[in-house]
Design a protein that fits this description.
single chain, D-Maltodextrin-Binding Protein, domain 2
Length: 326
């Protein structure tokens, strides 16, 4: 008969071995390709910035970090794909302000819970929005645009990458604050909304700088104001909303890496540390600024706390605009 003492010793040895194996597996992560799901179309801010980070992660770890665009339902489809993925560190969501801090106030029902269903690793980028119009538009300043817009008998139109996105909510808020009759035209993504603006099919957009920076530099759209508290580094000649007389209009967008709930803390922390290292690289910072964003890195705990603070702010904005997706 095996004694109680031997049984306990055997169990302790087995537990120690399992702990060692789990820790060893986490330390060695990744040992194969890692999928980063972007819940939005290729060409938008989230996609472009995620690909820059994926490129650096590939170099750092010597394993491919592959971007997979899963679009639809304001980003919810992509988030659901991550929620149901194995919690082994090989599926990451490049989540955004929308999928983590806004959608829950737009949808009466969602297949995922942004608080309970994910492990938060780190923020990866932040940017502001920019008020843009077609290069053919007669307005050269934000005030000239407002003067023009108020004279339009049928009102004005603005496009976005979809209902409930920050460009949508920003456009609604812009109309409400300035007593404009502004009709929202939702598109599937930035790749569709941008050509519409350039062609003059929509009158304005208040969209991510990262998405519109190439068009601004090429003269294909005109930038009239930014939604940051101070002038944006790469658009020093473009005033803030406050500077053109529109107060309390500070809107920033951001992205963060989250993983399926239950992903080992060692992997979550290792990814967070990698993002911190990447974000500190001057070459990466330069590339992000050229794309219209700033690099940012946070601990898992800081990421959770930030997303929660954002939920408080955006819940109030959704209620103000009355935006709903169902």
């Amino acid at each position: 008969m095996i004694s109680r003492r031997k049984l306990i010793q055997s169990a302790m040895a087995t537990g120690a071995a399992m702990t060692f194996q789990m820790g060893h597996a986490q330390t060695n992560w990744p040992t194969g390709p890692v999928k980063i799901i972007v819940p939005f179309t290729a060409g938008g801010a989230s996609d472009l910035l995620t690909r820059l980070v994926a490129e650096r992660l590939t170099i750092k770890f010597g394993q491919n970090f592959v971007v997979d665009n899963r679009t639809g339902a304001g980003g919810n489809i992509g988030m659901e794909a991550v929620r149901t993925a194995p919690a082994d560190g090989y599926t990451i969501s490049s989540a955004t302000i929308g999928t983590l801090s806004i959608n829950q106030f737009l949808f009466s029902k969602m297949s995922y819970d942004p608080v309970r269903d994910f492990e938060y690793s780190s923020m990866i980028w932040e940017n502001c929005n920019v008020l843009v119009v077609s290069p053919k538009h007669p307005a050269k300043t934000a005030q000239e645009f407002l003067t023009w817009a108020k004279k339009q008998p049928q009102g004005v139109t603005f496009g976005s990458a979809g209902v409930g996105t920050t460009p949508h909510l920003a456009g609604e808020l812009f109309g409400a604050r300035n007593n404009l009759k502004a009709l929202h035209i939702p598109f599937r993504g930035a790749a569709q909304s941008m050509p519409a603006l350039m062609a003059g099919d929509t009158d304005f957009a208040i969209d991510n700088i990262a998405s519109y920076m190439p068009l601004i530099k090429a003269g294909k759209v005109k930038a009239l104001a930014v939604t940051s508290s101070e002038r944006w580094p790469t658009l020093p000649d473009v005033p803030t909303m406050a500077q053109v007389g529109i107060k309390d209009f500070i809107i920033t967008s951001w992205g963060a890496f989250v993983l399926p709930k239950g992903t080992p803390t060692g992997i979550v922390a290792k990814l967070s540390e990698a993002i911190k290292e990447i974000a500190a690289d001057p070459a990466v910072q330069k590339r992000f600024l050229e794309g219209g964003a700033r690099t940012i890195a946070t601990t898992p705990q800081e990421t959770v706390a930030f997303a929660e603070r954002e939920r408080v702010k955006w819940k109030a904005m959704v209620e103000l605009t009355g935006a709903k997706l169902d």
